[in-house]
């Protein structure tokens, strides 16, 4: 039906820029709005505090994006993964800081590996499965630690003190956590756009059946997507535990929904195969800016949740509308 | 079952147009269909047939032009408006709800209910059974649609549309999944509906069908009407010229394949319930046809050969190396690949650009230590885009927006990109227009010329006979014989597939398929013998 036969030139880069431009336009608009709301908004101090405020969310969203991108919707066990990795890290601080961090990471990765195996190999529904895992893990943690919060020892010089200090470390004025987030986003962007794994995730997310019959080992790809998400959640969970100075089963609650929101308003389609990591970063920024502005306006956290929920509903509705408009052409 | 058929012109479309972003899909088309007439609508993929019929079924609210039904000017801006005006459409892709019963599907939207809103099951099943009988299906209407075969589902779909008692019936490639006797049955139904005064629009790529059933033919090309002929004035050559703008001379060029040593060998391959004890050899540069009726196990055999589906017994070897069952990724890396029969289900990434589809099977090969090589990808994509004459606005167009023929070319190109040793083709030109078909055949011939061995599964007999050097015949899960090039004819293949052909003495070296060679099954339930 298309009569042109001129040889095309690759334009995917341009397309990527266009697809992410929208979310950055929103971020820019929010910056302007923030400046109008308060003179203290556009200060380096406030902007840095916004960044450190969204750093944990950014890290989780960065991992969540892999699950969504590969067509598995969302990993709802990420909050439990965060709490678990934090608890294990605190519980093993007596072995020293580095072993404790490693064990914490391993604990989180174990959950990711299980999810990846069950969803990838056994084709479980990702939402139902990870929801069940979240439920199970919460019960498991409450049972094992008898509902208690785990406090690290914070005498100066102990591994516990170093652990608590991690969240508060800064490189100059920039918190370590912000640098970690930026590094993870950079790596994730590279992995998604430039590696075989990223390419295969995109194909699997676009059509699992077609990916399989193109000779792609889809179950392996899905496995690593869940592993990537669990890795990011474990990093975030350890920092969150360090921030709170305690490990407990409920740390991480709410991060599942907020991360999905960031991923989706960043332009990653819930149906998989579409989107970019820079967009997810933009989504995280928008959430951070929005929260900050609402705080400046004196709006409480609960009412902020209402706004976040509405934003999510609006964006998903818009994406569905776009998909339907596209779908017509395919019939 | 009564129809209030109208007399004279049931449908008149005048200067109807529909624009998609960037293309005029239907360009001032005139079409008129009389009551009691079967009007064939032909044209290559992308010629505008589907869009024209979508307009008629109320899919768009932004078409232009005039539509009159039964003499009355109508606007068809929604499917319900089209239904109210008596337009019934049987789509090529079925619109049945698989978990629901046949009866609920047939009478969807008009389920008989009592005054409390509860479904009256007896009335429901009785009425559904009447419609099933009418289309020649002896099925229990309480059965779920998911449990019946695709061709039965096709007939259920027709029953569903007929139960709305349309006065204009559109059939879009209704025979593509039907066997010969089912097709004959469908034609009986069409003739009956014709007598009852329905206006029938019949979309098809199959010339013999059109000559058998149609009264008049309208051909579309590039969104325009290139002419309407009565069936008496039409000839196959004339119609093909109107569709393609060119003749079909030398469609299947004389080929001189250089056939070498055995590349792929299957020994006593069995997948219970699908195929049994299948042995054959495929040689370098050879095109080996695989004939058989739908349901004979052809597709399942190909999928198991390459490792996509399980194997219960027997072995497949490629260049003397055993192919591990169930590890398709490995088969692909070794050069044994399968082109699926259903490009939409598991062939193409419809939402991704053409460029990414073209290199989708190369993710492993075009990576150094796990990092992609976009330069290599881009070179391959450009080369194939040109080589296969893929018609698309650009390499970055979403694949789902291409016409069927061009989608099929993209699918083939994806496998050509891997430079396979063995290519298993499953219906490589199903639902594809004449030009695209020829381009696909040329690409296959080029490939075999370079030494690739091809296994060709096709229900398109001219294609199977024209392209194959040898044909294996499969029936009810077993290889029942083999035909050399000189024995090949459409009629012989058809007879063989139906179990009515006496094969020559088997070539024991190449296969043990001769085991059932001189069997002429007289089970009588299968097919016409014409």
Per-chain topology:
The complex is a heterodimer of chains A (331) and B (530).
Chain A lengths: L11 H26 L6 H29 L5 H14 L5 H26 L3 H19 L14 H8 L3 E2 L2 E2 H19 L1 H11 L1 H5 L5 H27 L10 H11 L11 H20 L4 H30 L1
Antiparallel strand pairs in A: 1-2
Chain B lengths: L8 E12 L2 E12 L3 E5 L6 H8 L7 E6 L2 E3 L4 H6 L2 E4 L11 H5 L14 H14 L15 H13 L5 E5 L7 H16 L3 E5 L3 H7 L2 E6 L2 E7 L5 H9 L17 E10 L3 E9 L3 E5 L6 H8 L7 E6 L2 E2 L5 H7 L1 E4 L3 H4 L7 H5 L8 E2 L2 E2 L1 H14 L16 H13 L5 E5 L7 H16 L3 E5 L3 H7 L2 E6 L2 E7 L5 H8 L33
Helix pairs in contact in B: 4-5, 14-15
TL;DR?
The complex is a heterodimer of chains A (331) and B (530). With 331 residues, chain A is mainly α.
Distance between the termini of chain A: 13 Å
Largest protein-protein interface? A-B, 38 and 58 residues
Oligomer: heterodimer
CATH topology of chain A: ABC transporter involved in vitamin B12 uptake, BtuC
Strand content of chain A: under 5%
Distance between the termini of chain B: 33 Å
The largest sheet of chain A, given as strand count, sense and whether it forms a barrel, is: 2 strands, antiparallel
Uncertain stretches of chain A: 1-11
Overall spatial form of chain A: globular
